[in-house]
Amino acid sequence: MPPMAKIYDDIPRLLSLVDRLPLVRVAVWGDFILDEYITGTTRRISREAPVMIISYNRREFSLGGAGNAAQNLAALGIEVEAVGVVGADEGGREIRRLLSDAGVSHRFLHAEKGFATPLKTRILAGEENTKKQQILRIDRDGQVPETKSLRTALRSSLVETAASCDALLVSDYHYRTVDEAGFGKIRKAFQAAGRPVTVDSRFRLLQFKGATVATPNEPEVESQMKRSLESGTAATVEAGRAFLRRLQSPALLITRGSKGMALFEKGKPPFLLPVHGSTDIVDVTGAGDTVIAVLTAALAAGASFREAARLSNCAGGLVVMKKGTAVVRSQELKQAICGRP
User: Fold this and answer.
1) Residue 1 domain-assigned?
2) pTM of the predicted model, to two decimals?
3) Domain CATH code at residue 283
């Protein structure tokens, strides 16, 4: 069994990489999702049906999917270009506003008539003066239209980012913003210039072969490899090696929740990282977006795969201690590297 990594090896080197992050520019191509939170106070059981009546308190929005990855990059001082599709609707306008507030460029975010911006509505409720819990989630899903004009516009945007950005982060939540043919062409354009291409894909990662590194979690590996990882680390190591071969990539980073991460590199032994910080997790929402954002930025700044994995492991450990889709900032990351709370 490969040994666990010592997280705080080479602290000066890791700190210097964090300082270099604002010098890079990253393109984020993927599915931009709007997260809606409706919070209320529980009152009583309805007479109409066996359900709770909730008094409305407030409504809030945040970025999900590729938008969350983009705002995580921007929080580290990185210049970000968002490439994707939203609807010509209220949700699309809200995503643009949130991206602007985060400092993310959305000039390549295309508004498509007839397409409804993906929306995830979470209902949170509880008694007065108590912590509100999520009691229901409603998803409005939709596939990005396969029109020639939209695909041409997206590819034109991607070609422009390939000439100006230091890395490409692909965030695929299965809304079909990212197409396999387009991925193959743009991947080659970035990699020909020595720029990393990272991929996080919920259901079809093996269709995006040749990426510099991919970041599935254990359930995603189980699903795509059709094998169980319940027996522990040995099963993850075996599956990770097989997955890396099928992905035809230089590296693979599997996130393992409270068990940390496992990095696989072609021609090298697996590199296991224990979870950073507490295993008493507050909220895992969007943690994968934070991990791939920091991983991508670190690689663009010149980090090795192991250095980038260490930084993303620290960031992931920080963000799961925050509520909802949250970000990690440079000073927090530096404190985590140095072992300070």
Assistant:
1) no
2) 0.92
3) 3.40.1190.20
